[in-house]
Amino acid sequence: MWIPREIEPRLQRSARTRPVVVLTGARQTGKTSTFRRLFPDYEFVSLDLPTEAEQAEKEPKGFLHRHPPPVIIDEVQYAPGLFRYLKATVDAHRTRNGQFLLTGSQKFSLMKSVSESLAGRADIVELETLSLAEIRAALPGTVIESAIVRGGFPELYANPNIDHVAFYNSYLATYLERDVRSLANVGSLRDFERFLRACALRSANLLNKADLARDVGISPTTANHWLSTLEASGQVVLLEPWFSNRTKSIVKSPKLYLADTGLLCALLNIRSEEALRQAPAAGAVWETFVFAQLRDRERRAGRMGSLFFWRDRTREVDFVVDVAGRLELFEVKWNEVPGAGDTVNLDFVRNAVGKPRIASGAIVCRAPNSFPLANGFRALPVTELG
Questions:
Q1: d(CA 12, CA 123)
Q2: Cβ neighbours of 46 (radius 10 Å)
Q3: Which of 113, 152, 224, 257 pairs as cysteine with 129 (C-beta 3.0–4.6 A)?
Q4: Dist CA 84 CA 30 (whole Å)
């Protein structure tokens, strides 16, 4: 079963208007499948194959002669030497759009090559795991708790018979052996796996690299490098704090989130909906899930850099969406019936920032329907975020 992605119209538009389209994202998010479905007439070559990657890197001219455009080149980051020849080919036929469709699951190394050789020639699009809206469009009966535990990897919904626990065990092993070895100089994959699990325990919390390094038994420098590796491969996302001239005591550290709640639950050994409901970390998992839906919402709206959190030394609001200086405030609560007491931080930040700047404020909860709360705020189901 094919699950349509909300990003498909943008990819088709980009291929009509730009010579190169670069699709990034973590492994198994559906980059290759999406391109091959949207562009069935394109030739396809994967640099996951060592022989193809070697020729693309060492004999790029011959590689492009063998695979002329229009072509989909999968996992292109394995041949950084190819990018200069892609530039020359594009410039030789600059009016032709959709010449090269490139995918890559190692964002930082890929973007370095793109920025050096294909600046102004490529549209860069990021594909994350399935949003709740995409899952429910394909499988309308999906329960939210099931979507949280199963996660958003498309294969788990295209084939519902797949055991999600076995899937994540295999995914983790593959990720460690392939991406980590190529991205980072890791002496012990076991230590890196412990580091990833430690990050999972801190999802939806303020990042403290010194504490993280100490708990895993590595140096702060190593922790910083490994955290960059997790970011580069799309496994974690850092959320920056929102600043205002009126608020003087805002913290500077970002918050840490796992990118997908399925992998997060697997790392926390939460294997069922019932286990999630009873888990001490349920609130953090729920906040991580809501963060993913907000990222999807902002991406669909074409807004970059609009999502933050607010925190001073005593209070926090989980998410702030800044659109042209007008703010939406969101607190996240695992309960189904939030009350007036849950709006205290929203009210505090509204007063601190200034009421005219606040567009709306809501408690994102597990209520089946939206309803009003005290002080002009609302309880909001995650399904109504969009």
A1: 11
A2: 15
A3: 152
A4: 27
CA 353 → CA 243, 341, 358, distances in Å?
A: 10, 20, 8
Asked, for residue 244, whether it belongs to a domain, the answer is no
Does residue 205 share a domain with residue 108? Answer: no
| Dist. CA 254–CA 228, nearest whole Å | 13
CA distance 93 to 19: 9
Question: Which residue in 133, 151, 145 sits closest to 384, CA to CA?
Answer: 133
Contact 245, 350 (CB under 8 A): no
Spatial CB neighbours of 36, under 8 Å, sequence gap ≥ 6? 42, 44, 72
149, part of any domain? yes
pLDDT tens for residues 135-183?
999 999 999 999 999 999 999 999 989 999 999 999 998 887 777 766 6
Per the CB < 8 A criterion, the answer to whether 53 and 77 are in contact is: no
CATH number for position 77: 3.40.50.300
245-268, pLDDT tens digit by residue?
Answer: 545 556 689 999 999 999 999 999
Say whether both 182 and 197 belong to one domain: yes
111 CB-near residues (< 8 Å, 6+ apart): 24, 124
Instruction: Tally the domains of the chain.
Output: 2
Q: Which of 354, 381, 386, 383 is nearest to 370 (CA)?
A: 381
* Token code pair at residue 263: 């992998």
* Cα–Cα distance list, 255 to 80, 209, 288, 309, 381 (Å): 32, 11, 11, 8, 23
Tell me how many degrees the CA angle 28-33-36 measures, rounded to the nearest 5. Answer: 155
The burial class, CB within 10 Å (0-12 / 13-18 / 19+), for 256 is buried
Query: Is it the case that residue 7 has pLDDT exceeding 70?
Result: yes
Q: Crossing angle for the helix pair 189-201 and 220-232, nearest 10 degrees?
A: 80
pLDDT value, residue 246: 47
38, with CB counted inside 10 A (0-12, 13-18, 19+), is middle
Angle between helices 220-232 and 107-117 (to 10 degrees): 70
